[in-house]
Amino acid sequence: MRKIGLTIAVVTAIMAFGGCHRTPEGIIPPHKMADLIIDIHKAEGVVDMDYRDWGNDSSKLLLRDAVYRRHNADQAKVDSSLAYYGRNITDYIKIYDEVISRLEEDIDKSEAMGNQGIQLSIVGDSANAWPLARRIILNSISPSKVISFALQRDENWQNGDSYTWNAKVINARDGIKWLIGAEYADGSLEWNTAESGEGNDAVSIWLQTDSTRDLEKVFGYAVTAPVGNDILYLDSISLVRERVNKRNYSRRSKQQRVTPLPADSVVEKKK
């Protein structure tokens, strides 16, 4: 089980929530903001585990509004609060320290009870295989400006699976370049690219794998460029895997690919 150690900074952050913390009128206070974000994470978990019923936009909106009502908030208040904490990044980090700590406690409890729900996110005909955090914050001093992932084949994979990498981009100063690709056992590669725009945008980049080749790896990266005091948010990140769909399979012809030459061709060329 992954653990996040309690550093002095985190301990200080948690202690800070115990004291008096005044926020402007109309802004959700830090501890209540943490409560709201935790419930949003859990709601997104419901979507991930039952994507067929909750994957459409109207269902997601209903679920989101239900979470907001529970916390006596609406979209305008949440947006104002996120904008405020985006300008006060120290407070935002403190909030997420608490969110991470409390979510890990919930996961530990679920595992202790033998809860198999987490497995639903990686198995099944339609599943979220995203291996990293669902929210990522980047700025000019982040160790890396590239977000990347690589999944090795496991027993749940099937040749011909398709993958859709989704994310909401918030506060981008420049466009972000995205790539998702597949590597096969014979050394061939296949990939798609996309670019999201400035400001707030949503990206969805799709990859159809070859049903006639043995898939070894699915990988991807997003290249960002925050500068100065810019803070870039990637939210609601997912990597949805679905079984082969004959109606969509023809779209694979538009993907870029490299197929290695047969070994005997290489020998002949050297001669």
What does this structure look like?
With 271 residues, the chain is of the alpha+beta class. The chain has two domains: 8-119, no CATH class; 124-259, Jelly Rolls (Sandwich). Helices cover 36% and strands 28% of the residues. It has eight helices and ten strands. It has helices at residues 8-18, 30-49, 51-54, 57-70, 75-87, 89-112, 246-249, 263-270; strands spanning 126-128, 136-139, 146-152, 162-172, 176-184, 189-196, 199-208, 215-223, 231-242, 256-258. The strands form two sheets. Strands 1, 2, 4, 7 and 9 form a five-stranded antiparallel beta sheet that branches. It has a five-stranded antiparallel beta sheet with strand order 3-8-5-6-10, with no helix packed on it. Helix 1 (8-18) packs across helix 6, helix 2 runs antiparallel to helix 4 (57-70) and helix 2 packs across helix 6 (89-112). The chain starts with 7 loop residues before the first helix and ends with a helix. 20% of the residues are buried.
Condensed summary:
The chain is an alpha+beta fold and 271 residues long. 36% of the residues lie in helices and 28% in strands.
